[in-house]
Structures are given as C-alpha cells and as structure tokens.
Amino acid sequence: MKTRDLNTALRIFREKGGTLRTRDLIKLGVHTDALYALRDSGRVTELGRGLYRLTEISEAEHPDLVEVAARAPNAAVCLISALSYHGITTQVPSSVHLAVPRGSYHRIKLSIPVTVYRFDPKTFEDGLETHRIGGMPLKVYGVARTVVDCFKFRNKIGLDVALEALRLARQRKRVQNRDLLRYARLLRVEKPMSPYLQAIE
C-alpha cells in the first residue's frame, strides 16, 4: 500500500538528499498522487521528466549535473565539464561531457545535451572521484586526470582548452607535475604533453 501522506513524502525526500526519481519514490512507498500534490503546491520542483527536487533545497551550483547524478550514475563527468566543475577553465560547455567504458552499452537519456566519450575500460576508474550533488553521488574525474584527458582528446576539444587547463591547474596549485606525468604515462600522452609541462615549470 503506497502512502498519499504529503508529510511522509516530504520526509522521504529529505532523508534521500532532496532529489528523487519518480520510480525511486514509488519503491520507497510513496503514491504518485502525493508526488503530484507536492509538485502542484510548489513544494517540489520537476527538474526533468520523472526527476524531482525539494524546493526548500537551494539551487545546486551545477544543476545539469544533478540530473546526471540521478539518471546516469555509471557515467563519469569528464573533459570540459570536469574542468568547469573544478573551476579550471573559462570555457562554457555547450553539452555535458560524460565518459563511459568502451565496449559496454550505455544508453544515456537526459533532458540536457550530452556528449559521450568512450574511455578505455582498463583506465576508466583511474583518477575518478565521487562528489555529492543534490544529495546524490556524482562521479567526476579529478583535476590531474582531467587535464591529461584534455591533451588526449585535444583533437576533439582543442589544444587551447588543454593548455588553459594545464596553466590554471598549475597556477592554483591544484596539481603537481608528478601527478600529471603519472596520468600522461598511463594514458600514453607523455610525449605530446612533456614540452608544455617543461615550459610551465
């Protein structure tokens, strides 16, 4: 028996971090009537189809990433989106850049534009961090790994983006050359990256 009690539904929202999908709410014993009553009264906001957030929770700094955390939990935020998350770029991504392991089928359906990159499954987990956004876990590549990924994908995103990321990451003392070199070797971009690393030293 699903509950239609609005206070119970609100309590469940709060316990789960404030953002839930319709199907998760149903699994937790809340009737859709309660959800729609909360939406119609303005106590929850619809972020996208089937994704809701408590209105009392402040707007997330990266609202697009709240949807990624809810709908694509196995994907990782990478490249320009990861640079933006870490505050080491002046670029504004026109879509959310997500990585999935190559060879596995990932159907990512979001209400926002997404660019999907297929990363080598052997190195997919390296440099991956888990952050919390909208009360949910979000996978994001760390600063050093992201800078090196930008060099690896420089033909797709532009060398200028990679160079700016390297400069800003070093200026803000977020990364050491040894960390960058470790990922550069791992991802086999040490040769193209080395001159820039030496120049920035």
Computed CA radius of gyration, to the nearest angstrom = 20 Å
Q: What's the shape?
A: elongated
Number of helices: 10
Please, how many domains? 2
Helix content range = 40-55%
Strand content: 15-25%
Protein name: AbiEi antitoxin N-terminal domain-containing protein
Domain AbiEi antitoxin N-terminal: 9-55
Pfam families: AbiEi_4 (PF13338)
What does this structure look like?
The mean pLDDT is 87. The strands form three sheets. This protein has a three-stranded antiparallel β-sheet, sandwiched between helices. It has a three-stranded mixed β-sheet with strand order 4-5-6. A two-stranded antiparallel ribbon has the order 7-8. It is of the alpha+beta class. The protein contains ten helices and eight strands. β7 and β8 (136-141) form a beta hairpin. The chain has helices at residues 6-15, 22-27, 32-40, 63-71, 79-86, 143-152, 154-157, 159-171, 177-186, 190-200; strands spanning 19-21, 44-48, 51-54, 76-77, 96-101, 114-119, 128-133, 136-141. The chain is 45% helix and 19% strand. It has two domains: 6-54, Arc Repressor Mutant, subunit A (Orthogonal Bundle); 63-200, no CATH class.
